Amino acid sequence: MFFNEAYAGNGLPIQGTDVAVMWDSLYNFLLWLSVFFFILVVGGMIYLAVRYRKREGDKSKYITGNHLIEAIWTIVPTILLLGIFAWGYQVYSKMVHAPSDAMEIRVIGKQWLWQFQYEDGKSTIGELYVPINKPVKLIMSSEDVLHSFFIPNFRVKQDVVPGMYSSVWFEAKVPGQHQVFCTEYCGFSHSGMLAKVIVLQPDEWAAWKKGKSVAGGIGTVGVSGTQGGAPLAAESLPAQGKKLTEAKGCVACHSDDGSTKIGPTYKGLFGSKVELQDGSTVVADENYIRESIMKPQAKVVKGFNPVMPTFQGLVSESEMNAIVAYIKSLK
Predict the structure, then answer these.
(1) In CATH, what number does 1-52+98-234 get?
(2) pTM for this structure?
(3) CATH of 237-329, one of 3.90.1150.10, 1.10.760.10, 3.40.390.30, 1.10.3330.10
(4) Cis bond leading into 205, ω under 30°?
(5) pLDDT for res 2
């Protein structure tokens, strides 16, 4: 289904993922629950106002209260609210925890476009190609100002912040094109900061991976300057990262084989617990690696001297993604 067919009969965007179905179910429950209580409360008010309106000569009865009614209107809403919280938490937990086998794609937001980097080294602008029925995790960063990545059909939205990584995941169930918006004001052409998620069938995905044009593409000019999606990449993203660590002199202080140099080894770093000089520990995720490159004095590893210079302004977002991908590959 294409993005210009994006609205279903109930007025909501199409449900392009299982998470979208879960969110819509919760939304519809809250909507009709609100309608029910609105009719109950307002209808009751109107009925009581008419039924028990004051008439001349009437003397109002002295009412001391009704403990049963008070208990009902306290317990029932409490149970409903707890149920809504549990339901919402279940959906939220599903939305934020990506499966371990999710395919990772890097996203760079910049005024005023979206750039996508794939693990095999391909790179596209304005078109995010993904296979159908495959979990996809987007690892996102901004090159300039605050952006926000929103796919209405998938019911996913995440801020994209300068200087750090954020992530979101989805598993597309509907083939075709799905619109992407930037939903954080980011300057003059904010409204034009659009992209499309192009969900491909397995055979189309295999063809696109080989550099062939597919029907879902709309001919956006890619980073390489080619048309119709992405060409075959010469090197994978980790391979690009390895060359960057050599070109920028990282290998003088950091090894990739577990041996100790001036700085910690890259091997086995990602996902491990790192003990710092102040006695605290951190998990070496994407943001830790990024911070260690840009602000190396912020978290100094125990047993090593704080001698690393900052690479702030010396590493682009594309290069940072490649370096992080390389370090992640060194299990």
Answers:
(1) 2.60.40.420
(2) 0.80
(3) 1.10.760.10
(4) no
(5) 39
